[in-house]
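Dock nicotinamide-adenine-dinucleotide; give full complex structure.
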Amino acid sequence: MPNTSYDALIIGSGQAGNPLATTLADAGQRVVLVEENLLGGSCINYGCTPTKAMLASAERAHQLRTAGDYGLQPVKPAVDMAAVVARKNHIVQAMREGVRSNLTQERQGITVLHGQATFVGPRTVRVALAGGETQRLTAKKVFINTGTRAAIPDIEGLQDVPFLTTTQLLDLPEVPEHLLILGGGYIGLEFSQMYRRFGSRVTIIEAGRQLLEREDDDACQALTEVLEAEGVEIVLGAEVRRVSRSEAGVFTLTAHTATGERRLRGTHLLVATGRVPNTDTLGLDQAGVQLDEKGYIQVNARLETTVRGVYALGDVHGGPQFTHISYDDYRVVRANLLHRGPRRSARQRPLPYCVFTEPQLGRIGLNEQQAREQGIAYRVATLPVSTIGRARQTGRTTGFWKVLVGEDDRLLGATVLCAEGGEIMSMFQLIMAGRLKYEQLQNMVLAHPTWAEGLNNVFRELQKPELKA
Ligand SMILES: Cc1cc2nc3c(=O)[nH]c(=O)nc-3n(C[C@H](O)[C@H](O)[C@H](O)COP(=O)(O)OP(=O)(O)OC[C@H]3O[C@@H](n4cnc5c(N)ncnc54)[C@H](O)[C@@H]3O)c2cc1C
Ligand SMILES: NC(=O)c1ccc[n+]([C@@H]2O[C@H](COP(=O)([O-])OP(=O)(O)OC[C@H]3O[C@@H](n4cnc5c(N)ncnc54)[C@H](O)[C@@H]3O)[C@@H](O)[C@H]2O)c1
């Protein structure tokens, strides 16, 4: 077995591994990147990019159906799912090609291997190449960016039926007649609205007492109402005990709920109950890299594992599992290994995120639940979206903006359930980063009629009592 040594070995072509490979190569290091599946990892191939591309098709279908609200003849769209999937594939392939050409440009000098890496020593891996051969690699530094895959719950009968994960559903060339979705988290919500808008009947079956349990009750409730108004059935507090499928292809989920046993039937079943880390086949015990009780790699604030010279980046160390966090892990490692400036930490960085339903749920900083849990004093203001001029003009009036302000009159966090909620949330993130006091936003001149004008309104809700002379 040939043994080659490098300065840097990157396992996994994820959102951290790819930019790290090019940055290290630009710095003159000999880099090898090993990917067992598709270059670009989950975000590009079966995560963010394909879902948001297909959500755009679903949104267009919804606009056609609801065109009557805007004085136009409504259209019942004939959804050509094969064409929807083809459009998505086209976008994904172009992005994957971008990653490939970045990594393989001759000047980079990066060796890209297609195969599965397994540790055989602290900084030594064996790669089972796609072509059948095996190669041994050693490196001064090893970066693990192997991501996660769908968690499959241990439910009687589930392994015996052809359920779908998101990866498979995203390639389904037909519209499911009735899609059952196990799990009401990010994936469950985005896919429920997507397939409902394509024309499926959709039922979400969630174990928790509400959707998106980490969010405030008002946001969960409002999002539940949005989905139900579009015809998504939502079953909460459901403990699914058995799954079966009839010869006619009908899935039956037998669930224990507060109102007794329920049988939920559908033609397709999506399992979206969270993720598990891709660490089980990595041979990390051979390297001495320690895992937590869920199999995620233990790292410190600099993303160093328990073995010197071995780092873990992205979802594989437990997250938060977002593309922008994985990318920021790259920045942390880059700053600490290559830059002379202050050391960077992966702790205490802002955590913006957005659920891409319509309206979107954008979140930054603390919500009320978290402020209470952490004992942080706050004042809160909530602005119904329907009061914003831009919302009325565009007919996108559902939702609310909620801001929490601390004792120092600075923003602690925001929850934005609104059209373009992700973009609006990012304005709040900038306000937090700039440490602006809320009074500065009350009277800031903002272009009319923009969504941004809502900033004036939401912060005016926080009027302080007049000071007495
Ligand atoms: C359906 C879906 C939608 C999502 N939508 C969003 C969104 O809108 N916004 C957002 O921020 N996040 C979203 N995410 C999460 C996001 O995709 C991930 O957080 C992000 O891709 C970070 O991944 P990563 O860098 O940790 O690794 P990944 O991108 O998962 O890459 C890991 C790579 O390692 C490879 N690998 C694993 N083991 C080995 C091995 N032994 N040898 C060689 N290669 C190996 C894998 O094949 C994979 O290509 C979504 C996820 C899913 C599933
Ligand atoms: N817009 C985005 O940023 C976006 C979109 C999709 C995915 N993601 C990322 O991918 C990750 C995975 O998404 P996800 O939705 O699979 O996970 P999740 O953790 O967000 O939600 C999983 C849900 O499944 C429920 N559940 C677990 N076991 C169950 C069971 N046996 N029966 C019924 N319900 C059960 C949980 O209570 C939870 O509500 C997310 O945590 C997020 O980091 C992000």
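Observed: The chain has a mean pLDDT of 96.
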